[in-house]
Task: structure prediction
Amino acid sequence: MQHSQQIQFTFIDLFSGIGSFHYSFKQLGGECVLACDIDSDANSTYILNYGVLPYENIFDLPMEQIPYSDLLCAGFPCQAFSNIGLKKAWKDARSQVFFPVLDILKNKKIPCILFENVEGLMNLKKGQELRQILTSLKDLNYECFWKVLNCSDYGIPQNRKRLFIVGFHESILQKKSPRPHQFEFPPKTNLKYSLSEILNKNFNQKIARTIRVGGRNSPLNDRHNWDGYTLFPSQTEYRLSIQDCILLQNFKTSFQLCGCQTSQYKQLGNTIPTNLSFVLGEQIIKYLDNIKYFQTKRKKFRKSNPQIQYRAYLRSNHGEFGEYMIKAQLLCFQNQYIRTPFGDIKRLENAPNQLIQNKKLTLFKLYQLSDSELVHCFTKSNILKSKSLSKADVFINDRGVSIKTQNNPAIINHTHRQNFLRVLEYLNLNIQTLDLCISEYHRLRQNNHIGEDIFNSNPLSPFKKYKSYFTPILKYFLFYGSGRSISNHSAESILFVKSQSKGSIGQIFRYSPHNWYWFSNSQQFIDKIWDYLIFSLRDKGLNYEKKNCDSQKILEPWVQQYKSGKTQILKKKGCLHVRLHSSFTMDLENYKFLDQCF
Result:
């Protein structure tokens, strides 16, 4: 639905699992403001794919920290109502988590709700348990609609029936009866692929059985078997892989799960197929739009949300902290079997023979640590910055990687002409071209055509037309050395991290993996950044007055005096500084780190 994709809305994701609702709602314009789940591996998966830290226990969720939201979705635990389970319903401890949800609705009056559970809930005790749920919601002034939907009726070949309850708070509904707009569940669609087509195998059935938590590796003729099939014409047995299940639950092939194999199958068995969460999301947004909720009624629900407080350590040490956090997350990748463009991480080092290791660290544990616990974790895991001279910030399977984490990261850092002569001699390049560019830079600045910074996309930029000249220079500073010397250990690729500067409750990461971008070689990175470079001449690192006469003569062609913007004091500027403009992060989808693992 094209119109709904343009509408921005917020949602709370309770019993979030691996985030089927999040996966779909994000595509429809939604922003998750809170998530919660008891499964630590599922929470790591949520962090990895969405950059949101779920709360672990709904009973410990502070009511005052639950933010305003347009929609609350909850796939509350189904084992108590399942046909495969013991059908204990409300006597099962796992079903008790429904009552904190009612407390949230009572206190927050969320405008719209979407609940999911197994088909068995509808008939359990002749429908008594479902009626109890609907009555509880009616008492909280929600008008509800419910229906059983099957995954195979919406394009994906899996026989997976789920009960969905959609509710709207009476305060957003029109008072007229009958109402001019009634909520309608999504109409069925044709099957897009057969089981054989989606898995590229030859099976004797068109639609897969329900992916479940238990029963894996049961005999083919056992009633608990769900993952075993017979291939034709070979008549050989075939078991669904993790990747097969990901496809049958309609996640993209690059979607990754954290944890051991057993845990990954469990996460997939508990989730909702995203084709169902997507079509339901479409219908809900369409309905809210039809009743003019977004245009008028939403305003009275809107309140200021709790604002997260960034850690003091993070605020004062952005670049260094970011590098440590990225290394810690790479360590979690190694522990939790997460694939990378380097394959499975077998060896992680600060520098050659400086192992980073901590076998108990997971993504969910990492983001729950306090300031002091983080520092202890970095120290214990040998994550703190290496003392060796290296352009590579981390070594993954013996391959050096340079990490760029900050907004506007420096590529060439305050380097004067004397140091540049050493670099150009190493690269076998002349200084005249660079002198010419800087002379033109000074002319433009003195005539007030530019300020201290000049964006390389600016038609006036004297550097832009010399890309072939600057390419080996940029490669050198990115991968091999500085103005003072060549590094002991070079880098061969770039891990660029888009820094997330703000977020709502739950989104506390500036350096979460879904914001990582990987460039496998220097030329690829330089081609991408060229138009986003900012060139400037600065005073930092120059120390002109402290140099001897010979050094001053070498520096002099680049040195000019300019008034400081703050103090109006004249300062000699003569160090070339090149950094990336923040708009560089706008067009990087094809370079997603985790998408390049396949």
In short: Residues 2-192+268-300 form a domain with the Rossmann fold fold (CATH 3.40.50.150). Residues 148 and 163 are 4 Å apart (CA to CA). DSSP finds 19 helices and 19 strands in the chain. Residues 318-335 form the longest helix (18 residues).
